[in-house]
Structure formats: structure tokens, C-alpha cells
Amino acid sequence: MFGHPNSAVPAVEASVGVPTVAVIVPATDDPATLPSCLDALRRAGADADRVVVVREADGAGPAAARNVGAMAADADVLLFVDSDVEIHADTLARVRAAFGVDDGLTALVGAYDDAPAAPGVVSRFRNLLHHHVHATAAGPAQTFWAGLGAVRREEFLAVGGFDAERFPRPSVEDIDLGMRLIDAGGRITLDPELRGRHLKRWTLRSMLVTDFRHRGIPWVGIMLRTGRSSSALNLGWRHRLSALASLLALGGLLARRPALTLGASAGIVALNLDFYRLLVRRLGTGKALAGVGLHALHHLAAVAAVPAGVVVHLVRERRGSQ
Predict the structure, then answer these.
(1) What count of other Cβ atoms lies within 10 Å of the Cβ of residue 255?
(2) pTM of the predicted model, to two decimals?
(3) pLDDT at 5
């Protein structure tokens, strides 16, 4: 059902007050990036006995795989690491330190670093966007992130783990988990210095499909189902205004009103100046300009997901009542 890395790594002895940490890596799709992920875990000093690589699960999705890993792990804290992430060398030390000094900490989430591995404008833009969103949101968090996130095993099990039935494919299962942890009285912290390098390659199509179908629509469903809104991470006011400006810019293009298009575009740049400076530093001016366009498309996909999410929610509610 689950496997361990082939090569042993030095064990880390736990001392009084220092929690034990088990690393859970979902790998049911046999990802090509898995060896790089495991090599990074070894370099970080991960105990081979506490690295659980889940290759099979009831359901192919990462939610089910992570649940299998959590049940197999014997540790105080579960550290979930996606198979396309290379953790930094200090990751395990930071996790142990955070949970060791704060008994009230339920979960800790990190961020991608600003040096994504995959080439191409779309891949680098998308990974840098995720980095920037998390890097500028340090402190108390309302959601969990399973790409690089740790949670106390006891509290994870108490809320039922990831909802693999509702989220059989990669989606917002980690956001859903975070909300349930908060509802149960838990506390989540985002530490942007807890970092990993993202290895994923993105295409324009995969980015838009993810933003619309796998993230936007189910996130709308969560808000409608729970009856509450969220301003967490990329639902903050800056991102909502950017989405509105992107919609106005598109409207200006379609209506052939250049003044509206230019004004809305200027608004997008003003709202996201720090992020675009990051793109210039990492991509150069030309590719950073392409990044501005990709950012607008990202927001438009999110906007389109709102009415679609409402329709999907209403259809499911109707089916559930029959």
C-alpha cells in the first residue's frame, strides 16, 4: 500500500520537547519528479523510517493517498510534501522547532521559493505567483496547503483528514481541511521561510483549467456550502480588485474602448507592482510583460469560475435533495 525511499538516510533522534515528524509524499501517479523530491528529503536529514511514499490508495487522488500515509505514519506531526517539490535543507528543523515551542500550533504551511525549476514563461510565472502570494501573507492563516504543510497528527485525524470522497482528484482538498481545522478550534500559521522548490511544468491550458475547474469552481462550492466568505491568500482584496480590473480591461477590448482598457491595465499594474518587480528580476522585462498578461488571464479564469461554481453547487444541492 505504501513504500519507503530505497536509500536509508541518517536517523534524527528526538529529544524531550521535540516532536517527531513523519513525511507523507503522495505518488499514486508515478511522477517523474519523485526521485528529486526524495533526494531533497535525504539532504534535509529525513528519517527513512518516517518517510511514507504512497503509491497506491483507494482512489487515485492525492487526498486519499495522504490519508493512507497519515494512517501508516507513527509521529507527532505529519509533514505533507508533494512529489514535485524539493524541500530546502532546513525544512524539517523549522517544522520541529515551530511545533516544539508552540503547543497550541495546529498546522504550519510554507511557500515555494523564488527559483522554480521548470523552464518557460508560463511555468515560471505560475510558480513565482504562488511564491509571491505566500511570501506576502506570513502569520495566521485560515487554510492549509498540502504542497508543503505540516499538521499535528492527532488533530488531523480528529477532523477526519482530507475529504477524499468530495475531492477524488487534485483540487482544494487542503483548503477544505484547513477550514475544518479552524472550525475545530485549531490555529494555522504560514511561514514563508519554510520553503520548497517547485518542479512542476505548466502550460497555458493546464494553468487555466486548474484556475477555473480544479480551484475556482470547488472553492466557490466550499464558500456556498459553508455559508462564509474568505479573504485568505489569493482571495484578498488586492486580488479581487485585480480580477475586477482584468474584467474591465477585457470589456474595454471587446467594446473597442482603448481608454478603458489602458486604465484598467494600469490599475492591474499598480495593484501588483511588487509582484511584477519580482517577475522583472527573475524573468527579465520582456517575459515579465508576458507575465502581466498571464496574470490577467489567471484572474479572468477565477472570475469565470464564480457563476460556474454557483451553478455546479445548485445542481449538486438539487441532486442531494432528491
Answers:
(1) 10
(2) 0.90
(3) 33
